[in-house]
Amino acid sequence: MCGIVGYIGTRKAQDVLVNSLKRLEYRGYDSAGIATLDDENNPHLARSVGKIVELEHVLEPKPHTGHLGIGHTRWATHGGVTVNNAHPHNAGNVFLVHNGIIENYKELKAELKAYDFKSDTDTEVLAALIDSFYKDGTPLKDAVASALKKVRGTYGIAVFSPLEPGQIIVARLGSPLIIGLGDGEVIIASDASALLGYTREAIYLNDGELAVCTNKGAEVFNLNLKHINHTAETIEGDVDQIQKGGYDHFLLKEIMEQATTLHNTLSGRIDPKNGTMHLGGPNLTAKEIADIRHVVIVGCGTAYYAGLLASYYMEQLVPDLTTEVVIASEYRYRSFHLPKNSVALIVSQSGETADTLACLREIKKRGVKTLGIVNVVGSTIAREVDGGTYVHAGPEISVASTKAFTAQVVTMLMFAGMLAESHGGNPQLIHEFTNELAILPEEIEKTLKTHQETMHELAKKYAGFNDALYLGRDTAYPIALEGALKLKEVSYVHAEGYASGELKHGPIALVDETFFEVFNILDNWLFDKSIGGLHEVRARGGKAIVLTDSQREIDADDVIRINSPIKHLAPILLNTLQQLFAYYVAVEKGNDVDQPRNLAKSVTVE
Ligand code: M6R
């Protein structure tokens, strides 16, 4: 969602801000802007609706020349998508960019009668509130702290004033803020990817902290202005990882690089020779692992579906374990009870999803141990869980999640393997899973290469349809859900995922020649039942695509077969075909593949 950047140093601020905003484009936004101070300390503001390129057009005739500034990509929450509602906002001597939501902005606005508000945003109210404290020689830092004490809600902010040039004040509560420390310069961002290429040293601000940034570094305080010592951390990743690397879209790059990223996910965590799996991050003692009886897996969207697939594997591997998979936006408000010896897996690519974070906090209140299954290093969820493990998928830029899904499933599977060993799971089965994990990267590579063109052709054939059903049984069921989500997100084709066995309980009423169905069929003990569902659909005129690991005869409009020694993990391979299919349908339809309409990469508001 919204992104914040800021810069003080010797470079032209406009260049750094615009470049860094481009790095944040993937998060989803509808307008953008920058505010800078020139070398005579005059402020300049430029804002536009639409993509960053529109902002560049606004800047073209009158480039900003200064060396300090703040910038923002906005994803509308309060007020429509207009230039006036875009950030930065200005009130009196205060220029401000803000991520998050000020819940009591209406009450505050009513009190700030001296200000002539030009936007419908909560952010302009916060700018005015800070300005109302910024009087009679009060330092900007103090004014910001006083204002923030009156605010209810969440924020990541960056503020400057022409009255105190040479500094940017930043603060956070529930919305990330990272201060990159360069040589004679400071780069501020809400997402570490905006800092790559400038610096690797960064301070990750904690909730309730405020920092004064100058070109020499940053000093951190709490809202009572008590000094806080912070050590800088090293940012992972490099610029190559956040570039398209020759692909037309990040989505295709991220699908195709899954073999490589999976090597990172697996590295040092499996031992195929002995048939064992081990994750270091959870920080659980042998006794704690042995005592676990209940695992609740929490996530949203694709992370939820990854959890669902992992839960099937956990049940197969760990004999005395109950698993429960929950949607974070629901669970956070339920009166849930967790039994003794529960552990919660908090699954999130971004590590910033508001609903998932809220669940994490609810679960912690109940005294249950939380473990993060997170991709973004240093993200809020990763910092707040009791333990956990990074999935190491690398930066995922495309809004539609692909490689993170695969990495999440595999990481949770390794967690399951670890539990299985301690809980008397079947050693042969654990060994089989470990062996499959060891060859999974190369099998993914093979599947993608073999079928890329086929999936492209298939997408051309079906791109004209408006409705689709995705079906699967057992471990193919979660990937049917994921396949439907992927298609609707990027192609805007209406798609529903169902358990094949549910067809007769309602959805079959939809089936006619205007629908197509994607059947994920595994060559296992449920094969005949899956084929039964396929026949029912075909008998009603539905077009059927079958994705399968089976070499048995199957009668369908299109049958795509993977040929792999992998059995347990075949759903992961079939899912990569679905990813390619969704990608190519979106391309055929001429959609904005990496930033689909109405979506944000990281959903930091409810
Ligand atoms: O960053 P998270 O994994 O917590 O995000 C959860 C969902 O918002 C995310 O998976 C979403 O469903 C994706 N757009 C799916 O492609």
What would you say this structure looks like, in words?
The protein is an alpha/beta fold and 606 residues long. It contains 17 helices and 27 strands. The strands form five sheets. The chain has an eight-stranded antiparallel β-sheet, with helices on one face. A seven-stranded antiparallel β-sheet has the order 5-6-7-8-12-13-14. The chain has a five-stranded parallel β-sheet with strand order 19-18-20-21-22, with helices on both faces. Helix 9 (301-317) packs parallel to helix 13, helix 9 packs antiparallel against helix 15 (476-491) and helix 14 runs parallel beside helix 17. The longest helix has 36 residues, at 427-462. The protein is globular and about 80 Å long. The N and C termini lie close together (11 Å). The mean pLDDT is 94. The structure holds 5-amino-5-deoxy-1-O-phosphono-D-mannitol (M6R).
Structure keywords:
35% helix, alpha/beta, 27 strands, 8-stranded antiparallel sheet, binds 5-amino-5-deoxy-1-O-phosphono-D-mannitol, 7-stranded antiparallel sheet, 23% strand, 606 residues, globular
List the helices and strands and how they pair.
Layout: E1 3-8, H1 13-23, E2 31-37, E3 43-49, H2 52-59, E4 68-74, E5 89-91, E6 94-99, H3 105-111, H4 122-133, H5 140-149, E7 155-160, E8 168-173, E9 178-181, E10 186-189, E11 201-204, E12 209-214, E13 217-222, E14 227-228, E15 233-234, H6 250-256, H7 258-266, E16 270-271, E17 276-277, H8 286-291, E18 294-299, H9 301-317, E19 322-327, H10 328-331, E20 342-348, H11 354-365, E21 369-374, H12 380-384, E22 387-390, H13 403-422, H14 427-462, E23 467-472, H15 476-491, E24 494-499, E25 515-521, H16 527-539, E26 543-548, E27 558-561, H17 570-588
Parallel strand pairs: 18-19, 18-20, 20-21, 21-22, 23-24, 23-25, 25-26, 26-27
Antiparallel strand pairs: 1-4, 1-10, 2-3, 2-4, 5-6, 6-7, 7-8, 8-12, 9-10, 9-11, 11-15, 12-13, 13-14, 16-17
5-amino-5-deoxy-1-O-phosphono-D-mannitol is lined by residues 300-303, 348-350, 353, 356, 399-401, 485, 489, 599, 602-603.
